[in-house]
């Protein structure tokens, strides 16, 4: 039982990342009909937003401390972060420590701007082109963005720690009446799951209960009719592209303490996220979320030692095996619209 609970938690953790990225992918495909292979790069850029803010907050200046000397008796040079000078040592240290959560606020305008520039500068020219052309150009864009990150930040992973208050582990065993230290799970992974649930719920609430979201959903169902009503649906779809980029960026920001940001992390998640979208159903937002968590849990259970000993390597292919089975039985995916990918 403890192994089942632990693997379920691991699956929800992985599924949160899959669901967030797949949600943004589905928003773009459902509104613009674009297969965006650069979406994984947006996830990566979000993670490096956290790295960037950490470096900005850690920027320091050199002062001479007359009360301290080196081994030669000379006054020591001391590096003092600017935030310490501006807000005081204690507050400044807290700001630096909480740089990852603060990066949420930093990343939203950055990712919105990147998404809008990407859509207006490149993607809009490929709306009526075949999906193969869209895949090639967005995949090329992803490689360019990846190399830019590599140039400025280097090829090695950059540790981006969570706040000290959230670096410990929670004892689930005690909560469930088990012995202590039977089920231990990191606080930050629980925070990531809660954050993912909040973002997913916010996106669905925005689309379901706001006038803007209702118009977007109507445009996804029948773009021409909405346009005939005098509504500039293209402008709203452009904004949705920016929002999808922001969702991917937020997923990357909060994932930075779990997996140290590196220049190829976007590609690592890209293929898996597209599998999630296809399994859930192209253009189906609930399907993307459902498939994300489902495949995350399946991958987690397939990683158990007992399963690997029984079927070596199954943890590496389980997602693709499930995708094949689902698409053979139901080509449009679990919750895809009738006629999509069924011709």
CATH topology: ABC transporter involved in vitamin B12 uptake, BtuC
Residue stretches low in confidence (pLDDT < 50, at least 5 long) are none
CATH architecture: Orthogonal Bundle
Strand order of the largest sheet: 1-2
Q: What do the pLDDT scores average to?
A: 85
Helix content: 55-70%
Distance between the first and last residues' Cα? 44 Å
Label the structural class.
mainly alpha
Strand content: 5-15%
- Helix and strand pattern: HHEEHHHHEHEHHHHHHHH
Query: What overall form do the CA principal axes indicate?
Result: globular
Query: How many structural domains?
Result: 1
What does this 3D model show about the protein?
The protein has 343 residues and is mainly α. It is built from 15 helices and four strands. Strands 1-2 form a two-stranded antiparallel ribbon. It has a two-stranded antiparallel sheet with strand order 3-4. Helix 2 runs parallel beside helix 6 (131-153) and helix 12 packs parallel to helix 15 (314-329).
Key words describing this protein structure:
single chain, 343 residues, mainly alpha, ABC transporter involved in vitamin B12 uptake, BtuC, two-stranded antiparallel sheet, 15 helices, 7% strand, globular, transmembrane transporter activity, transport, cell membrane, transmembrane
């Amino acid at each position: 039982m403890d192994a089942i609970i632990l693997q379920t938690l691991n699956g929800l953790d992985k599924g949160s990342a899959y669901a967030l990225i797949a949600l943004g992918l589905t928003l773009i495909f459902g509104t613009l009909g674009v297969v965006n292979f650069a979406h994984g790069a947006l996830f990566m850029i979000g993670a490096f937003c956290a790295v960037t803010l950490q470096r900005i907050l850690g920027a320091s200046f050199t002062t001479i401390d007359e009360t301290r000397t080196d081994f030669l008796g000379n006054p020591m040079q001391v590096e003092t972060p600017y935030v310490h000078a501006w807000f005081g040592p204690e507050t400044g240290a807290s700001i630096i420590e909480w740089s990852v959560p603060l990066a949420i606020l930093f990343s939203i305008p950055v990712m919105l701007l990147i998404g809008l520039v990407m859509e207006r500068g490149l993607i809009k020219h490929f709306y009526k082109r075949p999906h193969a052309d869209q895949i090639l150009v967005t995949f090329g864009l992803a490689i360019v963005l990846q190399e830019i990150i590599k140039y400025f930040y280097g090829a090695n992973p950059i540790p981006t720690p969570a706040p000290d208050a959230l670096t410990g582990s929670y004892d689930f065993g005690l909560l469930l009446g088990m012995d202590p230290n039977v089920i231990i799970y990191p606080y930050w992974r629980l925070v990531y799951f809660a954050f993912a649930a909040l973002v997913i719920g916010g996106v669905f609430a925005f689309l379901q209960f706001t006038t803007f979201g209702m118009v977007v959903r109507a445009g996804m169902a029948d773009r021409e009719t909405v346009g005939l009503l005098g509504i500039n649906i293209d402008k709203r779809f452009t904004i949705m592209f920016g929002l999808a980029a922001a969702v991917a960026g937020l997923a990357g920001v909060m994932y930075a303490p779990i997996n140290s940001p590196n220049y190829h992390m976007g590609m690592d998640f890209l293929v898996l996220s597209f599998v999630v979208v296809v399994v859930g159903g192209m253009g189906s937002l609930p399907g993307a979320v459902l498939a994300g968590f489902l495949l995350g849990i399946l991958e987690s259970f397939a990683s158990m030692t007992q399963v690997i000993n029984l079927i070596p390597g199954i943890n590496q292919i389980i997602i693709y095996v499930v995708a094949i089975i689902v698409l053979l039985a139901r080509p449009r995916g679990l919750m895809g619209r009738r006629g999509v990918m069924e011709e």
